[in-house]
Write a structure and sequence with these properties.
The chain contains four helices and six strands; from the N terminus they run αββαβββααβ. By secondary structure, the protein is of the alpha+beta class. A six-stranded mixed sheet has the order 3-4-5-2-1-6.
Length: 119
């Protein structure tokens, strides 16, 4: 079904093709004024998390989307990229399990991205 946001759909497509795992999208509209969507993805190492971030930034720029902010790149445990209506969280597995954003934002509907994510 994908998200109503072209930015979200593009980010998910890029992360999926670059082998991010456990990609999910939360619709946080109505729950916060920070953003409309969270895209959450996992990498297996510092290098993969940084590479996912690099590919995402590069391919999103080609698609016309410039990040407004980027945090956590040097440590690469959790990189946060802020775009207009989406915050992209790229975690290492252990860090994602520790912070459990999906649980913290459990009232946010999960967006079905099965038409974009290739299993």
């Amino acid at each position: 079904m994908s998200a109503e946001s072209k930015i979200v759909n593009e980010a998910v497509k890029i992360l999926d093709t670059k082998m991010a795992s456990d990609i999910l999208v939360l619709d946080v509209r109505g729950l916060t004024t920070l953003t409309d969507y969270f895209v959450i993805a996992t990498g297996k190492s510092n290098n993969q998390v940084q590479s996912l971030c690099d590919y995402l930034e590069e391919d999103m720029l080609k698609a016309g989307y410039r990040p407004l902010s980027r945090e956590g790149y040097n440590t690469a445990n959790w990189i946060l990229l802020g775009y207009d209506e989406v915050m992209v969280h790229i975690f290492q597995e252990e860090t994602r399990e520790f912070y459990k954003l999906e649980h913290i934002w459990k009232d946010a509907p999960l967006v079905d991205m099965s038409d974009i994510i290739i299993e």
